[in-house]
């Protein structure tokens, strides 16, 4: 057990702080009181932090006054004061942190055994407990040190030079699939959490499927968590967008010879792409994190984007109120995006209140549980199609007239192509505004408005090589 703690190292660090209190600032960036093995050392370090916060001297007398003599014996303080001086305190600090993490992992091993043997605990619940505890340990063990200005400027210069070599291209991340949206956002960049929100029937699922298709066809790996729709239905929509075969024809199998040929070719092409779909319909942030990590471990998958449809259907991980659960989910997705260095797109529902406004274009305040989501998101976009409301309004007038025994001829014209607005309500690193697209209803496909055939901006970052391996489209749940 002595491999997971060292009293001498703990004593040396506390001694170093006593003789040079300024070192506490650096130590606090790595250690917490619980990271010390000896309870007396935990108490002393906690008192040091309290004295530091109160801007009081960190010395023997002030510490003695604030510790219980029953918990911290005089001999322990004397041993700390008589410890040999050290020169590289942070090296010792990292040893303490490393031992602390190992002890927590040992405790977790005991927890795993305990929950595995409890008959009243299901396997899924046991996995959830283990994943949650492991995430807490991994998050707590992650440390970061302050960067010196020379390091920051060097990294920034490297980034600027990299952008210059790209020839002033607009896209620096993963393509949105649309030229004007790429230009407005520079694409979806690594570590970004993107929220795409809309009222029902606006086409938000169709839009992210179009984005997924554009990325898999560019050689990127995409994971799609569908909590509402089976994988087969998603694939039908993607095929309609890819082949220009009406979705209703695909559903009924009503196609001519050319369309069957186009469909066969589309399947052969998609079979070489890296799209992974989890349509289990029930998942929490711990399970999602584990599945993303599992697929990302294989570099051949080149996981470059994660999509969740949709955020409010994700489960919480404890007995918390829904607002707190959504806050935890939102923060968890942002942390995962930063950890994996990929963009994560989460669909979100909007409050019904906007239906009562004359102008029904969404705003940030329309987001459900908007506080946490708005805080964590790097980009928040809304999908709005005015024709959806015009059709509903005309249908309402027609029904009211029928109820009164009157005639009413609907003024709504059902067009095959409707204008859609992608409203950027928040963008942490860019401008807000509106990008207009056309929505081709029968193909469930959004296209560039001015030039439907205009390709998205060329992807500027090379994808990880897949070593020539073929990857099938996984439509079952990711296990």
What does this structure look like?
The protein has 479 residues and is an alpha/beta fold. The protein has 2 domains: 140 residues, DNAb Helicase, Chain A (Orthogonal Bundle); 243 residues, Rossmann fold (3-Layer(aba) Sandwich), CATH 3.40.50.300. The protein is built from 17 helices and 9 strands. A 9-stranded mixed beta sheet has the order 3-2-4-5-1-6-7-8-9, sandwiched between helices. Helix 15 links the parallel strand 4 and strand 5. The longest helix is centred in the N-terminal third of the chain and has 29 residues. The radius of gyration is 28 Å and the shape is elongated. The two termini are 36 Å apart.
Blueprint of the fold:
Layout: H1 7-19, H2 24-28, H3 39-53, H4 60-66, H5 74-81, H6 89-117, H7 123-141, H8 149-165, H9 179-185, E1 193-198, H10 204-216, E2 221-226, H11 231-243, H12 247-252, H13 257-270, E3 275-278, H14 285-296, E4 303-309, H15 322-340, E5 344-349, H16 370-376, E6 379-384, H17 386-403, E7 417-427, E8 433-440, E9 445-448
Parallel strand pairs: 1-5, 1-6, 2-3, 2-4, 4-5
Antiparallel strand pairs: 6-7, 7-8, 8-9
CATH class of the largest domain: Alpha Beta
**Largest beta-sheet details:** 9 strands, mixed
- Determine the N-to-C terminus distance: 36 Å
Report the strand count: 9
Poorly predicted ranges (pLDDT <50, ≥5 residues)?
A: 458-479
* CATH domain topology of the largest domain: Rossmann fold
Strand content: 5-15%
Count of spatially separate domains:
2
Number of H- or I-type helical stretches? 17
- What's the name of the CATH homologous superfamily of the largest domain? P-loop containing nucleotide triphosphate hydrolases
Task: Give the helices and strands as they follow along the chain.
Answer: HHHHHHHHHEHEHHHEHEHEHEHEEE
Query: Average pLDDT across residues?
Result: 82
Taking all Cα atoms into account, the compactness measure Rg is 28 Å
Strand order of the largest sheet: 3-2-4-5-1-6-7-8-9
Protein name: Replicative DNA helicase
GO cellular component, one term: cytosol
EC number: 5.6.2.3
Keywords: ATP-binding, DNA replication, DNA-binding, Helicase, Hydrolase, Isomerase, Nucleotide-binding, Primosome
